[in-house]
Design a protein that fits this description.
CATH architecture: Beta Barrel
Strand content: over 45%
Number of strands: 20
Number of domains: 1
Distance between the termini: 15 Å
CATH superfamily: membrane protein fhac: a member of the omp85/tpsb transporter family
Helix content: under 10%
CATH topology: Porin
Number of helices: 1
Shape: globular
Largest sheet: 20 strands, antiparallel
CATH class: Mainly Beta
Radius of gyration: 21 Å
Structural class: mainly beta
Length: 390
């Protein structure tokens, strides 16, 4: 959700990075302010870098906070085939969304004012609740052969959820698993096949992931499941790359509702359907369930390239996209389509083939849940973000 307000600075030697104030915008959370620091050391034989550190803070007018750091180190272990990824952060929403569980949950319009009772409307915050969530993870990735595309990884993560209900609200009515909040410690392991080149803004190659996760019964609940994903980057000649991603997973057991929007995997995107990374144009978390799948298509066209300050490579890109998503599970009164889609256009700024800033705008369709309402309601999402969505 971040846009660079000034260019990064090319540093001496192999170092590249920036410290910038940031302006953020997200249709769900409104405008926000913050800052971001990134620094990477590039070395021959290491893609995309030898190591990288990032720290970011952001607060929006809509009551969303996201503060995080990431350390990514390559070339570890006896033969230099290990990679360590450490993340820590804090997220807080005053207006996180919950519409129910399943692909066909609908939404009733907000009533015009307090004390107005109508059968087809609800209070303005009926589909909202407050969530605070500190989180951290440690991931080790090991290449299986020197210079080969195959690697294995293992990760341990921790998320502590504190939930405040609005009353009345859909969440207070449903009372799904996890509504009391608490600690989750998911453990993930998997195999990767990675031929992307370069890794940050690929111009070719494939990234395949097969993973499984289990969450120990910290609160008396055991849950987990498998995940599969493939991303392909096909050069179409000139400066055009067709980027495709398909992901699917199914969670079993006592899955907390807060985890139904999270993706399993080595380097998962922003959680859930909707928002900046999946089903752009739909509100973040609009649909959730124990099983989910997404297909994303982008046509990335590099418009032009130049060097700022005489040494900092900048590349400008446009990317029309189409997203399609499905969620398992059914609402009590199924309505609307089982599949949901969106389409739009993205603008990208790639700095030194290492850092990516973008603005994406997408149109989708929401589903109404009231007599006499239109079956589908067009929606628009605008997102200012760092990093490609995949």
């Amino acid at each position: 959700m971040i846009l660079l307000l000034c260019a990064g600075l090319a540093l001496a030697g192999e170092l590249s990075g920036f410290v910038v104030p940031t302006f953020s915008y997200d249709t769900d959370d409104g405008p926000g302010l913050g800052g971001r620091f990134e620094l990477a050391r590039k070395s021959p034989g290491f893609d995309p870098y030898r190591w990288s550190i990032m720290a970011q803070g952001s607060v929006t007018a809509g009551g969303f906070q996201y503060h995080r750091m990431r350390w990514d180190q390559l070339g570890l272990g006896p033969e230099g085939r290990g990679r360590l990824l450490i993340r820590a952060g804090y997220k807080a929403w005053t207006r996180d969304g919950y519409w129910g569980i399943g692909a066909r949950t609908g939404e009733r319009p907000a009533c015009p004012g307090k004390g107005v009772e109508q059968p087809n409307c609800v209070p303005a915050d009926y589909y909202e609740y407050a969530l605070q969530q500190p989180l951290a993870s440690v991931t080790w990735r090991q290449d299986l052969a020197e210079g080969g595309p195959w690697s294995a990884f293992g990760a341990v993560a921790g998320r502590l959820s504190t939930i405040t209900l609005h009353r009345p609200s859909q969440l207070a009515v449903d009372q799904p698993l996890g509504v009391e909040g608490g600690l989750d410690l998911p453990l993930t392991a998997g195999l990767l096949y990675d031929t992307r080149s370069p890794e940050i803004a690929p111009q070719g190659g494939v990234f395949v992931e097969l993973a499984a996760m289990v969450a120990p019964p910290v609160q008396g609940q055991l849950w987990g499941g498998p995940h599969a994903g493939i991303s392909t980057y096909v050069p179409l000649g000139g400066r055009v790359v067709w980027a495709h991603r398909t992901m699917a997973e199914w969670l079993f057991g006592a899955v907390p509702f807060t985890e139904m929007v999270n993706w399993i995997g080595y380097d998962p995107p922003t959680p859930g359907f909707g928002g900046a990374n999946t089903l752009r144009g739909i509100r973040y978390g609009r649909w959730r369930g124990p099983g989910k799948a997404v297909v994303d298509q982008e046509l990335r066209l590099r418009l032009f390239h130049h060097e700022a300050f005489g040494r900092l490579p900048l590349t400008y890109e446009v990317a029309p996209f189409v997203d399609l998503a499905a969620v398992s599970g059914e609402a009590d009164d199924p309505i609307g389509p089982p599949l949901h889609g969106s389409a739009g256009l993205g603008l990208r700024l790639i700095v030194d083939e290492t850092f990516v800033g973008r603005v994406d705008a997408g149109y989708g369709a929401d589903v109404a849940a009231c007599a006499g309402c239109p079956t589908t309601l067009p929606t628009l999402g605008v997102y200012v973000a760092f990093d490609h969505p995949f």
